[in-house]
Design brief:
This is DUF2726 domain-containing protein. This protein is α+β, with helices and mostly antiparallel strands and 202 residues long. It has 7 helices and 4 strands; from the N terminus they run H-H-H-H-E-H-E-E-H-E-H.
Length: 202
């Protein structure tokens, strides 16, 4: 190839690169980038990606149709004046890593990330105290997959270690009955405890 042609091509490429840099500098920043920079936030790849397009849309509903049907039956089975039924709660929001594990250590993060990516179908909360009394899992065919079996076994162990009751079944009606019986027993136990407390106070 002629030396003059090579020089011309290299010069042309340099000019194109220079023009692209100039145009990039003159191009106004996206509103997201401006907001981040005004807040003193360093703009990285993720922020640039978000500013360059539309990537998110809202879900049509929080749960699957089967889960919605299950919840509707649960509303009829449970005393809603006594309990809150909270759907799709992250496991890491109802249990915590013991203080025996050094906070923010490698072990801590490994355990946290494991629980943070899991959700329980329903969490039952005492309306009077906001104490979480149980977690609920409605099983389906996906729970037979190997990866899901691993998650279920590990979740069972997390809940066991945390002392958190986990009510689970693939049969929706059976699970509703289990929950009703569990809460009935809990209310009876709570009633006895309240009576003992009142006697001591008297």
């Amino acid at each position: 190839m002629n030396a003059g042609v090579v020089v011309f091509i290299v010069s042309l490429l340099a000019l194109i690169l220079l023009l692209s840099c100039v145009l990039k500098q003159k191009r106004p920043h996206a509103p997201l980038i401006r907001r981040l920079r005004e807040a003193g936030v360093r703009v990285g790849d993720t922020e640039q990606l978000m500013a360059g397009g539309v990537f998110w849309e809202r879900q049509a509903q929080l749960m699957t149709d089967r889960e919605v049907h299950f919840m509707q039956g649960l509303f009829r089975a449970v005393d809603m004046r006594r309990w809150y039924l909270c759907p799709q709660v992250r496991v890491a929001d109802i249990v915590q890593i013991t203080p025996r594990v050094r906070g923010r250590s490698r072990t801590w993060w490994k355990l946290f990330h494991m629980a943070a990516q899991w959700h329980c179908d329903v969490v039952i909360v005492d309306r009077r105290t906001f104490r979480v009394v149980a977690a609920v899992e409605l099983g389906d065919a996906s729970h037979l997959k190997k990866s899901r079996c691993r998650r279920d076994i590990l979740l069972d162990e997390v809940m066991r270690q945390a002392g958190m009751p986990l009510l689970r079944s693939r049969d929706a009606r059976e699970l509703q009955r289990m929950i009703r019986d569990f809460l009935t027993a809990l209310e009876a136990e709570s009633g006895v405890s309240d009576a003992i407390t009142q006697q001591k106070a008297g």
